[in-house]
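Collaboration report, partner site 2.

Our partner group contributed sequences for two proteins of shared interest, and the home lab folded both. The records are reproduced in the order in which they were received, starting with the first partner submission.
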Amino acid sequence: MAKLTPVKPGDIIELDVHGLGHTGEGVGRYQGLAIFVPGALPDERVRAVISQVKKSYARGKLIEVVTRTTDRILPRCPAAADCGGCQLQHLDYQAQLTHKTTLVKSALTRIGGLNDVPVRPTIGMEYPWHYRNKIHLHATQSAGRIKLGFFAEGTHQLTADISEQSCLLVNQEIIEVVAAVEELLNSFKIKSYDWESKQGLLRHVMIRRGYATGEIMVVLVTTAENWLTEQELAREIVNRHPRVVSVIRNINTNPGRLILGPQNQVLAGKDSITDRLCGLKFKISAASFYQVNPRQTEVLYNKALEFANLKGDETVVDAYCGIGTIASLLARHAGSVIGLEIVPDAVTDARENARLNNLFNIEFFNGSVERLLPEMVARGLRPDLVVLDPPRKGCEKEVLEAILKTQVPRVVYVSCDPATLARDLGILAGAGYEPAEVQPVDMFPWTCHVECVVWLKRKHSP
């Protein structure tokens, strides 16, 4: 039998694509090697040029679709292939939902060792466009003018000027504010930050909008350089767009890609905006986490409430509670709620949100969940329900161990990453907690991301 010649960068191959990777690229096998090709879709045959070869896989760049799937569509956005924000704009929306359900099932089996967990079809959106209530934009200089937009993936090169080419995922009123802010930045002759020389003032602009209230916050992320016209510019932004109720300068001296720094200065208006979600009112500060798709957030949170199955007298722990959104929703149906959160500003907002909603059965604690929860359990905390909504990296082992010590009868887990969700569910299942139902929710249409909510029941619990 002839020995196969290994692929090398520059080789052009034809490949049958059989699936999608977790970041949305097509996956096939060539001479026994997994090949990842962004832009390729399952059931297609493609030509690709090999760009990178590793020990167990290679990456290729799509040259031509030889055989096309009926699920392929033309992306609405001309920058979709370059900016990296919409990995799946070339895939029919219903096919995306099917893919995301399959992705969750595969992760549970492959990573968690869980083969029989019911995974419901992913809940999609009737209109999956203009859903984002927040946007981060990079500032760059072009022909003597500031431009606000997205960098091409892995670069500091602008791929789309948002004032000229509207992002189809972002709320349209936010796009209007972007155009006004860009115009004013140029009229004030503000210099953008240069990533090579490390010189300049403006690094990013972040804009967030209350879905129900329409209140808008503009955050100007800058270096620590002295800025004499900051308040005058802020007043002009408010005058130009009356829905802007908060203009904040955030100072970030970190040399990396971290968007926000630790210091905020209110230049005009308030230090926060407000929004309403699931019949509750929430205060949102610049650094606080708040879901970016409000319509689907209500779907997700109501499903979490359903899975909680509260009767009215339970003690609930909401770990990674953020500004208290889920905690506040649960508090209307439980005896008491304890919220744990590491970000100080988020805890301040959470306490204010409880007061705004006349919820007096919630207590919030500031600190890492991996420290606070074990300490509380050691002091005798025995909740009836634990809700987990960790960051993408999932739960630390100290958190899972503390849950096991409580012998809590029910756990509800909200996750933005199927891989870390599967890992943690596998650990809990091995210790006696049975995942009863998984509900994926499409919080991020046209991207490869999917959110899930799961409930687990401790064996032998009523």
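Second partner submission, folded after the first:
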Amino acid sequence: MVTGVTATAMASAQAVVTTADFSELVQQVTPAVARVNVTKTVSEAELAQAQTAELLRQFFGDRLRIPDQAATPAIEHAYGTAFFVTADGYMLTNHHVVEGADKITVTLNDRTELDATLVGSDERSDVAVLKVSGNQFPALPIGDSNALKVGEPVLAIGSPFGFDYSASAGIVSAKSRSFSRDTSVPFIQTDVALNPGNSGGPLFNQRGEVIGINSRIFSGTGGYMGLSFSIPIDAAMDIYEQLKTDGEVVRAYLGIYPQDIDRNLAEAYNLDRPQGALLTRVSPDSPAQKAGLKPGDIILQYNEVQIMRASDLLNLLNRAKPSDSFRAQIQR
């Protein structure tokens, strides 16, 4: 009897860890992915400054600079990846891929080259919207990044180092990763191999739905070291709609400075566990102060959404529109 139970448990475990096969999915989605080629005119001084700054950047180094020795200014060539979200030619990519571009072209997988227009770009979220002329493009289905689970297999397609339509797979390592200088995006962390040129490319779930835009890596060498970050498609589509409609992104302002709750703070506030966002400061005459929020308050829920970390609250606020209202559950 004990042997039978053990055998069943082992068989079940083996079934769970079966490696995902993305071969059919790659063939299905590749036509909707394109290489982005950017040309920018820069002075020699700007070029030297940008090359120095590139060594310190934690964004992808997607710039392959080819100075024209015979003339000043120099020509900068950049490359990245984009993908279709509508059949009439709207595409998503990263802001840092097309930043400062004089000319943008996209190359499809059948080697068709199309001129692209920059509809709008948002530095804070690192999302940009492109438009090419035509119709009946193979738009990709949009998934639900909120439904992602840590450990779930994911697939990326892009042009690392110019090697077009390279596929790489991995798992979701963590969700809602935020950075001190960029709190507007709750990044999806994966161990998918991403390198310069993958920027702006799609991150897929096993159903072939886009659940993220590949945006950055952490690396001491400029190449992949196991830490890759993607913009959740839910947040990216919010930015897309604003850029497509208005050409710019407008964000709401509340006037709070939240921090995470650790174990000691949880005990001090008689919380069952570390959760919520502690308000360390509320700006004078801000919407938060007028609503009655005070320093020391802990926000536990935002419109019935449970807040576990300060980043959860900031991510919700960054997707709010001016004049939006919300109900908060707080502990004072």
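Feedback sent to the partner group on the second submission included the following. The radius of gyration is 22 Å. The CA atoms of residues 46 and 74 lie 9 Å apart.
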